[in-house]
């Protein structure tokens, strides 16, 4: 098996995806998805998939290690007409992490998969997937969900600063994984959870999210702008905000970046 091959005809047969674009090499699938989202006639969900990115982006100013063998794609999603599409989107950020965690757990049997708030997926104590959710002005209110999963891009070859903090599916079990199979599994779980979110709301998924929460019970440092908040994580509230027991008492945070957890 090639480490970086995709079965495009199989992907085109997916019930979930209404439009598929594949790039051998692109700067960032999220940037391309934002351009596509500006087209009113775009059938959604649309999938932009790449074998390689030359300027893969992470949250904030982070970059994403984007070599062939990694699974990198962006989805353009549209809320259902007459439903609370955009209102559900803070929930969707968390639900996307849950769905991908479930898909990867079915693929990599040798590790425990969990979600680090809001939606990084971890295999044991290392990051294996990052999600970048954006809704730029030109996207017509649509949501862009960028996903990077380390699949066959072994961290033995990664930049030194990443080697101790991240991992890939192939590093967990010393096997190559079928990128198309991993992608289809992820799309299936996203579809299921996205429908559930739209029909039942985020609260119906909160308990399931809590079962895969990496941070609950741990001491966390959360950076919010210039402020560092330290506390024991007690989970998430009904809106998906992170709950911390800090020296000031129980506090909730809707945004921020986890800079450390013990
Ligand atoms: C993060 O962990 O900070 C988010 C990483 C998201 C990376 C993916 S790879 C596909 C898509 N295109 C990008 O430029 N970024 C996302």
Provide structural commentary.
This protein has 262 residues and is of the alpha+beta class. The protein is 28% helix and 27% strand. The chain is built from seven helices and twelve strands. It has helices spanning 8-12, 29-37, 89-107, 160-163, 169-173, 179-200, 203-211; strands spanning 19-23, 46-50, 71-77, 113-116, 120-123, 126-134, 143-149, 219-224, 227-236, 242-246, 249-253, 257-261. A seven-stranded mixed beta sheet has the order 1-2-3-7-6-5-4, sandwiched between helices. Strands 11-10-9-8-12 form a five-stranded antiparallel beta sheet, with no helix packed on it. A hairpin with an 8-residue loop joins strand 6 and strand 7. Helix 3 (89-107) runs antiparallel to helix 6. The mean pLDDT is 92. The structure holds biotin. Biotin (BTN) binds next to helix 2, strand 3, strand 6 and strand 7.
| Beta-strand share of residues | 25-35%
Query: Which small compounds were modeled alongside the protein?
Result: biotin
Overall pLDDT level: 92
Tally of alpha and pi helices: 7
The total count of strands amounts to 12
The rounded Rg comes to 18 Å
What's the N-to-C terminus distance? 39 Å
Runs with pLDDT <50, length 5+?
none
Order of helices and strands, N to C? HEHEEHEEEEHHHHEEEEE
Strand pairing plus helix content: what structural class? alpha+beta
Instruction: Give a quick account of the main beta sheet: strands, pairing sense, barrel closure.
Output: 7 strands, mixed
Helix content: 25-40%
Q: Shape from CA axes?
A: globular
